[in-house]
Structures are given as structure tokens and as C-alpha cells.
Amino acid sequence: MQSYDVVIIGAGAAGMMCAVEAAKRARSVLILDHAAMPGEKIRISGGGRCNFTNTHASPKNFLSGNPHFCISALSRYTQRDFIALVERHRIAYHEKTLGQLFCDGSARQIIDMLVGEMQGRGVQLALSTSVEDISRSADGFVVTLSTGTVSCQSVVVACGGKSIPKMGATGFGYEIADRFGVAVVETRPALVPLTFDARTLERLAPLAGNAVDAEVSCGKTRFSEAMLFTHRGVSGPAILQISSYWREGDEIRIAMLPGTDVAELLRDARRLNGRQAVQTVLANHLPKRLAQAVAERTGINGNLADMTDAQMKTVDAAVNDWRIKPAGSEGYRTAEVTLGGVDTNALDQKTMQAKSVPGLFFIGEVVDVTGWLGGYNFQWAWSSGWVAGQAV
Ligand code: FDA
């Protein structure tokens, strides 16, 4: 039976980072993946350019049952450390917006960088390989693979969450946790488009394809980014962000011209030309079809000259305080990440090791730490992978 110091399940972002770091410490490492290629999610991320980190990454950009859990890993391996690695590999990058760093070229450069680092340090990569069984042995674990049986001192579970099953997501990491008695916080799709019921959709379907820079809030949480009307409901960065906070039955509030007093805008326009229709004025600031839809919804369609101040306030509310209850989300099929996962109370924050199972580690998305949209989730994968790499 082949023996390793470390077996890592999942050759994604977190797993590969952990493999590199463990190998730097002269640990013998086998990293396996049931997919035919490593880092498939990296490859499709950021529209093919991989938003690999965020210059503003800090613990406040993450959701978790224990918001303090991620502090240690994020401060020991920071976005600056990952940027330095990218620069050492001469990968050109740029900031797109809000601190989000993307490759100038292709996400494949990040995969090649990690695979190159693993190869250079003797990490063994086994693709198209699945795990059939994991059991404890006197000095570690015995892992039965589709290709044979191996033994190791440490098992690192890095097989991601449930999002996008088509890309190889399985939820296998939660099964391993269950099996070893490690608690799992209920999971749900996050960073996901929200959907409307059939009646609302009938009304809003003609808006599909229109986008606005909106402020979207749910309870006390708010995000100001682009929002897109789709054939199923709403999407775009602002909606994906708020989806991580939204729960069934919650109302979301949308300001489509945040920071603009629409009543005042209409009064100013009336002073200039009272014979304009309300949608004509709104169409100077919103997509034309959306301006029409707002006017129709308020039922106010005469000239500005005939409008009362109260009616102008009604239009203001329709634009900047649109309240709607999404019926649901598009689910794991399109969710970028999985909220919830391996309970942080069950893990040591400095090493990512399960407190009750020495030698068993959980890193990356499988853990109950979920980042905002914008490179934060990869930063968590790098940071948690790095700290586990120092401990395995
Ligand atoms: P990841 O999912 O990367 O890796 C898990 C690996 O385990 C996979 O290779 C999988 O095949 C393997 N695996 C699963 N089950 C297995 C099993 N049973 N046996 C063996 N192997 C198994 N984040 C970000 O910060 N910036 C971005 O630009 C994007 N963009 C983006 C786009 C899209 C479309 C999605 C779906 C997601 C993103 N993300 C993102 C999120 C980001 O991809 C995600 O947070 C990280 O990939 C998580 O890294 P992990 O290594 O934990 O899991």
C-alpha cells in the first residue's frame, strides 16, 4: 500500500494551495480529484479571467456562524501574499472595480501557476480518481480510491460546496464530515439570482435584459452595484450579494436611482417643460422600458404639469423604494457558492483541523465561511488552504 503524509481530496483552489504549502515543508502529498482536470472552477471564474482576490478583503466580507473564525487564516495568508505569488509568476492583472483583481489574460494562468508550484515540489496529482472509503488506522487514515488503497497521516477535505453540480460539485465533503461526527451547518445556495412568482414575472418579463446601478437591501444589509432583470427574476452583482443574506419570505428593497430625489428631479423637469410625460423624464436616467414600467405601475401617465407633489412622491417610491418578495432563487444550478457547511465550532481556526478528529482537515468552500462576490471566496480558499498546509 502506497503511503503519504497527506492526502488532499479535491484539486480546486484550496486543495492546490494546501498541497503546495505542505510540500514546501517536505511532506509527501497526494492530491486527487474525480474531475479530469484540476481547478475547473478557477477556469470558469470571473468570466474566464478569475477574480482571484480582493485588495479590500477582511473578515467583514465573510458570512459564517462564527464571524471571528476566518480572522486567523485571513491574517496569516493575506491578499497581499497571493498577489505577490501572482507577481512572482509574472501574471499580469488589473483591478476591475471595488478592489477586485482579475487576470489580464486567462484564468488558466492561475491554474498553471498552482499546478506548476505543485509539480516543482513533487506533489502527486491523481485526476479522474474518486474516494470509495476513508477509515481511521492506528497512525492516521486508510483511503480507498477508485485506483487502489493508500494510507496517510492527514486527510484534507477540499472538495468544495454543492454549487454548480455540472462542474463536478458533489457535497461529498459534508458526507465525510458526517461520517466522522463533525457538525455541518445547514447549506443553501448563495451568490445566486433571485426568482419571482409567475404573476410578477408576467408583469416584469418585458424588462429582461435591462440593467441599472442599484442599491439593493435586505434587512440592514445593503449593496450598491449593478442589477439585471432576467426572464426568471433579477440578477447582477447587487442581487447576487444580497442573495447570501436573503431568506424565503423576506422582502428586498431596491433603489434604482440611489441618491437621487426623484420627486425633486420631476419638479425640476416640470419647471423646464411641464408638457413632458413622467416616463420621458425617467428615461433620461433609467432604461426606457424600465421608465415606462415604473410609470405604468404607478398609474400616473399625464403631463408633469398635471401631477401633484404626492404623485411625484409616489413615483419616487416606485423608483427608489421598490419592495418585492422574491419567490426563490435559481438554486445550486447557478449559485456561485454554498452558504453554510462544516461547522466552524468543530474546527481549529489556526489549522483547520477537526477538533474531534486529529489529522482530518477541512478547507475552502466546504467550511461554513462564505465570502461576498468579488474575489473574496478565492481569498478564503487560498488562506484556509495555506494555514492547513502549515499544519498537515
Ligand atoms: P472548488 O470547487 O474550487 O474545488 C473542489 C474540487 O473538489 C473540484 O475540483 C471538484 O472536482 C473536486 N471534488 C468534488 N467532489 C469530489 C469528490 N467526491 N471526489 C473527488 N473530488 C471531488 N470566487 C472568487 O473569489 N472569484 C471569482 O471570480 C469567482 N467566480 C466564480 C464563478 C463561478 C461560475 C462559480 C461557480 C464560482 C465562482 N467563484 C469565484 C467561487 C469560487 O470558485 C469558489 O469559492 C472556490 O472555487 C472554492 O474553492 P475550493 O477549493 O474550496 O472548491
UniProtKB/TrEMBL annotation:
Domain of life where this protein originates: Bacteria
RsdA/BaiN/AoA(So)-like insert domain location: 188-337
Transmembrane segments: none
Coiled coil: none
Domain called RsdA/BaiN/AoA(So)-like Rossmann fold-like: residue spans: 5-390
Matches recorded under InterPro entries: BaiN-like (IPR004792), BaiN-like_dom_sf (IPR023166), FAD/NAD-bd_sf (IPR036188), RsdA/BaiN/AoA(So)-like_dom (IPR055178), RsdA/BaiN/AoA(So)_Rossmann (IPR057661)
Protein keywords: FAD, Flavoprotein
SUPFAM superfamilies: FAD/NAD(P)-binding domain, HI0933 insert domain-like
Cofactor(s) this protein cannot do without: FAD
Annotated protein name in UniProt: NAD(P)/FAD-dependent oxidoreductase
